[in-house]
Amino acid sequence: MIAQLYSVTHATPIGNIFSIDHPTKSFESDTILRDIFEYFSTYAVNVVIITQKMISIGIFTLKDMMRSLQNFGNLLLSVGEFITAPLQTFTSTQSIAEVLDTMRDVSYNKIVVMQEDKVIGVIDHRHLLSKCYTQLAPLIKHEYNLVHSMLGLVDEGEQGLLKLATTDFLTGVGNRRLFEKIFQSHQSLENQHEMNLFLLMFDIDDFKKINDTFGHNIGDSVLKQLAKLVSTSIRKSDVFARWGGEEFAILLRYSDPARVIDIAEQIRKRIDAYSFETIIHVTCSFGLTPVKPHESIEEAVLRADLALYRAKADGKNTVRLEMT
Question: In which order are the strands placed within the sheet that holds 89-91?
């Protein structure tokens, strides 16, 4: 059952939209359809969880039931023959933004939410979006206004200059100016403490040695390849920019610091395993910090840099977190 919430944002844990007192009903896969049909009819629900030896393996919807009843002889068959697949589960602590981001590129429509190995609800993409729309609309409007204000940086008819103003010429990713603008925009939002922003700074280990040994043309090539590799390792909603020299910055929105550490580790490992042209092997060190409400970008960058310095001191090619 969907809970009645008065405040839902992209950072709201997905489990908060369900009533824990009314979890979604589960049936074992060998339950006959007649029993589930009676349950649908009695309680006016439209979805149940199908389990096998107490492990969730799929969902069965009212639409599935209607298709099954095209042959009334199916009422005596087990529901396991008709369940909807695949079963995609999310933990109740994952943010709505993470769930929507994952659902964007998949074929299934409904997701199952778990809390401590217990199913607490099922929701489809359309209803999840409608649940959030009222609260997310101001954020969408804010992002639109940000883009519109950036377009105002150039004269009408010269919007091609916008790319030059906000893009790093060498790597093609955002530049420092763009990153600072977006950071300030996020910090100006009301209730930004719910946004769970994280700043990840990283740079190439021993980059000076690469330039000195192979030349600046090879160094530039490494920067371009690295930017492309990292761009394919993060979400489109994450903000990625070249901070300066061989240092890069990523602004991420997640509900769980551990998840961001995992992402940083995944990026680090991808770089470590990647075969760069001509010099083959490159590593990077990473500094991560949560962004506090109302703080300046200088304060956040200082903490991220402290974490990055620790990563360097601890042998490079590693990720370090600075909380305070």
Answer: 89-91, 110-115, 118-124
Whole-number Å distance between alpha carbons of 77 and 56: 19
Assess whether pLDDT exceeds 90 at residue 53: no
**Domains present along the chain, CATH in parentheses:** 14-129 (3.10.580.10), 161-321 (3.30.70.270)
* Distance in angstroms (rounded) separating the CA atoms of residues 6 and 4: 7
pLDDT at 309 over 70: yes
Q: Which of 65, 57, 63, 66 has its CA nearest to residue 26? A: 57
Among 93, 39, 44, 37, smallest CA distance to 67 is for 37
| pLDDT for 188 beyond 80 | no
* Closest C-alpha to 235, from 112, 97, 111: 97
Contacts of 177 (CB under 8 A, 6+ apart): 165, 166
pLDDT in tens, 220-249: 999 999 999 999 999 888 899 999 999 999
**b/e sequence 168-195, b meaning 16+ C-beta within 10 Å:** beebebbbbebbbbbbebbbeeeebebb
Q: Which residues are catalytic?
A: 246
pLDDT value at 60 more than 80: yes
Mention every residue, 6+ apart, whose C-beta is less than 8 A from residue 211: 218, 219
Name the DSSP letter for residue 276: B
Chain segment 94-113, per-residue pLDDT in tens = 887 777 777 776 666 677 77
Contact 261, 148 (CB under 8 A): no
Instruction: Report the pLDDT value the prediction gives residue 146, as an integer from 0 to 100.
Output: 55
Say what the pTM is: 0.56
Task: Classify residue 78 as exposed, middle or buried by CB count within 10 Å of its CB (0-12, 13-18, 19+).
Answer: middle
Query: pLDDT value at position 156?
Result: 47
